Protein: Holo-[acyl-carrier-protein] synthase
Amino acid sequence: MIIGIGLDIVEIERVGKLLERQPRFHQRVLTDREQEKMATLPTAKRRLEYLAGRYAVKEAFAKAKGSGIGKALSFQDIETRNLSGGQPTITSRMLGDDEAAFASITHSAQVAAAQVIIEKVGR
Structure:
């Protein structure tokens, strides 16, 4: 049963401007593993798309949980990795043992968007 749906769209240029003003912005948003992955990407453009996509998926997750990013849930509480086929997968301390999160991330030249669906699984 679906218990939450979240959607977020981020302007990539806006994320770039945030990064210029706050050079540690990516450290606030990305977990250590996500930062390591971002560092392996070949171009600054691709790294910025990655950051914008991860930012969008974390905001979408927070919306699906109904909490938003704040005191109860931080960016560091949400980690997105890719399965071998490329599908994003989310881990978070905010997911109950009976919950699963499913994500989709997309980019264009201007925006990154993410949708997250949280389901109650099992009985």
